[in-house]
Amino acid sequence: HLASSLPLPSERDHLRPRIDLIVFVIDIKSKYSLKNVQASLAYVDVRFFLGKVCFLVTGVGRVNSCSVEMNAIWKLGEDYCSPVILCELELEGIRVTTAQRLIRMLQICAGCVPGVSALYFSLLMRNSASD
Predict the structure, then answer these.
(1) How far apart are the C-alpha atoms of 41 and 87, rounded to whole Å?
(2) Burial label, 6 (beta-carbon count in 10 A; 0-12, 13-18, 19+)
(3) For residue 74, what is the domain's CATH number?
(4) pLDDT at position 3
(5) What is d(CA 108, CA 25) in angstroms, rounded to the nearest whole number?
(6) Cα separation of 20 and 16, whole Å?
(7) pTM for this one?
(8) What range does the domain containing 45 cover?
(9) Which portions of the chain are predicted below pLDDT 70?
(10) Which of 26, 86, 95, 112 has its CB surrounded by the most CB atoms within 10 Å?
(11) In angstroms, rounded to a whole number, what is the distance separating the alpha carbons of residues 26 and 31?
(12) Domain count, the chain
């Protein structure tokens, strides 16, 4: 589902699906992509940053055509306490693995994995990324 801002207005709440995970996609080949994500973050309710937001960075396999500094992306993840996932969507194997990883994150954020909370999982993701 797409939305221009979060949280959504409360009217018609009973008809709207619950939001369990927000994935911001940043194309490393486009400065506009990063600026668009940065502008969109202002519309996200603070409660979502408690384990229900991640940044998916695409195009990382083409270092020579990057328009976005990786330091800016790592800082974004750090500033918003959210994991950063790097991928190359042009390669089928990596695309499938990334999709499976996002589905697993969604299952955790939706509360479908007993004993693992979204906040705890997000903390594990951030620690592993900084190692």
Answers:
(1) 21
(2) middle
(3) 3.40.50.300
(4) 62
(5) 20
(6) 12
(7) 0.81
(8) 19-127
(9) 1-8, 62-65, 125-131
(10) 26
(11) 9
(12) 1
